[in-house]
Amino acid sequence: MAWFTTGSGSLMTRTIVLVAFLLLSSFTFVDDPKANSNPNVGVWTHVSRATFKPGDTGEITITIAPAEGYHVNANPPVEFGLDAPKTIMLKGVLSQVTDKNNGYLSTRSPLRQTFYVPSTVKPGAHTLKGMVTYFYCSDVEGWCQRFRQPIALSFTVAQ
Question: What is the dihedral of CA 10, 12, 15, 19, to 10 degrees?
Answer without folding.
Answer: -140
